[in-house]
Write a structure and sequence with these properties.
Helix content: 40-55%
Structural class: alpha+beta
Number of domains: 2
Distance between the termini: 70 Å
Radius of gyration: 21 Å
Shape: elongated
Order of helices and strands: HHHHHHHEEHEHEE
CATH superfamily of the largest domain: Cytidine Deaminase, domain 2
CATH class of the largest domain: Alpha Beta
């Protein structure tokens, strides 16, 4: 038996009609997600399924967007087609945000933290990212360099330099997360930072900072005087 289609719901419960009549900003996350899901199961509406998915991810859309198709289909009533639709919509939202972020100017380590916090805050593994800036410190690109395990990730400096050249960057800011909860840099973190700084100097790409994010806090190499000015 097919689940309840949105068309069969009471008028007040139809998120599609609500979006048309009241505008998208007036829909909750679960209502917007229900539109993507389309139909529910025998005993649950699409809204019910949406609420289940959000609750399982702490009502955090960023966390939901990082799930795989396999993870999404663990929710009863969510098949591969619905999972693909959900991930596609979340990816479009992420790309829209990235386009908007490319107009931002980075003045301080707080600005860099604000940019990367939504990207790495919920991860249970380490990721290494680089933010590329022009001469006005305006963001012109951001690239994930690597993704690893709980205690580390491998970083290829040649890949960083490749992206720096592609973006015609004047400077860069490094960022990685520590799922362990500690922001203090390791000896290898410090050594890697110095290697990247030296490599960047050969291309006239300055290293402005390296921030380590853990939870709601961060460590800045620049603020702590660990990156020498030219």
């Amino acid at each position: 038996m097919h689940g309840k289609n949105i068309k069969s719901w009471a008028a007040d419960d139809r998120p599609r009609e609500k979006l048309i009549s009241k505008g998208r900003a007036n829909l909750s996350d679960s209502e917007l997600l229900a539109i993507l899901i389309g139909s529910g199961t025998r005993d649950k509406t699409a809204i019910d399924l949406a609420k289940m998915m959000l609750a399982a991810n702490e009502n955090n859309l960023s966390k939901l967007s990082r799930l795989s198709i396999h993870d999404l289909t663990k929710t009863p009533g969510i098949g591969q087609a619905k999972a693909v639709t959900i991930l596609a919509a979340l990816e479009l939202g992420s790309r829209r945000k990235a386009e908007k972020d490319n107009y931002r100017i980075i003045h301080t380590s707080d600005d860099a933290f604000a940019f990367y916090y939504p990207i790495v805050c919920d991860l249970d593994h380490e990721e290494f990212h680089v933010l590329f800036l022009n001469r006005a410190n305006r963001i012109i690109g951001s690239n994930k360099i690597s993704s690893g395990g709980v205690e580390g990730t491998l970083v290829d400096i040649k890949i960083i330099l490749k992206h720096a050249i592609e973006h015609l960057a004047s400077s860069m800011i490094l960022c990685h997360n520590h799922p362990s909860g500690r922001t203090k840099p390791s000896t290898s973190d410090i050594a890697l930072t110095n290697k990247i700084k030296s490599a960047g100097n050969l291309l006239s790409v300055s290293l402005l900072d390296h921030i380590i994010i853990s939870g709601n806090t961060y460590f800045s190499f620049g603020d702590e005087g660990l990156i020498e000015t030219e």
